[in-house]
Design a protein that fits this description.
The protein is an alpha+beta fold. Helix content is 59%, strand content 23%. The chain contains six helices and six strands; from the N terminus they run H-E-H-H-E-E-H-H-E-E-E-H. Strands 1-3-2 form a three-stranded antiparallel beta sheet. Strands 4-5-6 form a three-stranded antiparallel beta sheet. The radius of gyration is 21 Å and the shape is elongated.
Length: 182
């Protein structure tokens, strides 16, 4: 009969298990969404436990263009391997299912990102990026007069980035092909 952990120890193992199941670094928001969708701990427990795991060397955080990410360290992976059976099977199955169902949207979130800077007086700069890992594949930087307009553009970036990339590619490539013929 397995021994199930409780309290902070259980919550730490749950976060380690989520990161292991994802097989890729997750942002703070993505990690919490899995916690929330699986109803595995409270927000306050999550916010307390994650920094403790990092301070104890089980999780490492690092900056990516789309935000801070978390991944298991060797010590964290070893702990999951040794103690994942301490998490009830039903919860592990919910986590596995949620991670699998979320994988595509999590990947898309790390491929399209944006940065907004500036202020009301000087205007705003909106940087819209499509990434492959950490490499920028396509990017547009726009000077925008209002924060409202910048936020609207930012909200449409993920859905429209593919079409804009294709438009730019076709126009630039055809333009150079026409120049070669002429």
């Amino acid at each position: 009969m397995p021994f199930f952990t409780h309290g902070d120890t259980k919550n730490k193992l749950i976060l380690l298990y989520i990161l292991s199941a994802s097989q890729t670094p997750l942002t703070h928001d993505q990690l919490y969404r899995v916690v929330d969708r699986t109803d595995s701990m409270t927000f306050f427990a999550f916010e307390t436990i994650l920094p403790e795991l990092e301070a104890d060397g089980f999780v490492a955080s690092f900056v990516r263009p789309y935000g801070d990410c978390y991944a298991l360290t060797e010590r964290g992976q070893e702990s999951v391997s040794l103690f994942s059976d301490s998490i009830p099977l039903s919860l592990r199955e919910r986590i596995d299912k949620t991670v699998t169902e979320s994988a595509t949207s999590f990947l898309r979130e790390t491929q399209t990102t944006s940065r907004l800077s500036g202020n009301e007086q000087d205007g705003y700069m909106l940087e819209l990026l499509v990434l492959n890992g950490e490499e920028t594949v396509f990017g547009v930087t726009l000077a925008v007069a209002s924060k409202e307009a910048a936020l609207v553009m930012r909200s449409r970036w993920e859905a429209q980035s593919g079409a804009l990339y294709e438009l730019v590619w076709d126009n630039l490539y055809r333009g150079s092909a026409d120049e070669k013929r002429g």
